[in-house]
Design goal:
The protein is mainly alpha-helical. It has helices at 3-32, 84-90, 92-100, 108-119, 123-155, 158-168, 170-173, 176-187, 192-199, 211-238, 243-251, 256-284, 288-293, 302-311, 316-347, and strands at residues 34-38, 40-50, 56-66, 76-80. It has two domains: 24-50 and 57-82, no CATH class; 123-347, MetI-like (MetI-like fold). A two-stranded antiparallel ribbon has the order 1-4. The protein has a two-stranded antiparallel ribbon with strand order 2-3. The longest helix is centred in the middle third of the chain and has 33 residues, at 123-155.
Length: 349
Amino acid sequence: MTRSSFFLFVAPSVTSMVLLIALPLVAIAYLAVHQSFVQMELKEVTTEVPLFGNQTREVTRTVPQPVLDEDGNAITVWNYVGGQNLENAVDIDGLSDVLTNERSFTSPGDLIAQFYREISNVDFWSALEFTLLYTFGTTPIILVLGLALALAVNRITPKLRGSVVFVTLLPMIVTPVVSSLAVYWLFLDGGVIAAFLESTGFGRFYFLADQITIRSVIIAYGVWFATPFAFIILYAGLQTVPESAIEAAIIDGATAWQRLRYVIIPHLSPLLAVITLIHVMDSYRVFEPILVFGSRVFANSVQYLTYYTLVFEDNVHKAAAYSILTVIGVVILLIPVIIRTYREQRAGF
């Protein structure tokens, strides 16, 4: 392939990456290190105040008004503030107060409980806590369940595989908001699951009114939604496992567990790394179930905090700072996986 042909081949992808990824990141980074405000000035404004007998009186007041440019538009001033927005987003002062507060406790567990309650009142660190819990809680489960489903489907008869694969992939077909709503309605007070448990004598459950249950439901939703992706990737990978290696392991007397551990999993390790990379990036940006469940008190996320700051606080600069922190968090989590994958690939050559 000639150099010109290569550039023509990659030009659409490079252009899309620049327009859809690079430029938005640059814009967000710019917003995160700047602060903007409308320039104001004090002006005397005269108004007529009605009195008795159809009389009026002129009242002159000094009020702030935006400074207008030649076209009549308000002048916006942009100031470079460096990392101030990031510091405000992270809330260093709030974290420092939590770390330096004096506490009276009777046991290490009591100390941890007090510290957890206090850090939960600091927005960013509370959101980061559940974001990491969701990420590290769902990732190993979807890898194990995805592999288990792939192995199970690979053993059934070929006639049934198509139907089973289709049913397994159904959670991926539904958009995250719709699937979150479906799960929300299931666990809603008086919903199907709550009504079933009450009718069978287990009592009345309020899944969305308790921190432990609502977090468990959100994590379970994440597992249900992401496992089909891991399953289909690993199922495709199982089709490439060399039959000769499996047969050789059987001849050597390897058990099913030994064949899985020493033959199948090493063969699928690159796919497991890819699934981990993609799911970590996706789960760290968990947003839809937090929004739909309205669980900000019990379970928050950095991505939802960005949305809340932008929409309800109308603070685009602080929201941009949260976005930058999200990117930084994803990169930090991916570094160990990338390094390990690089070393494994390098050792294979």
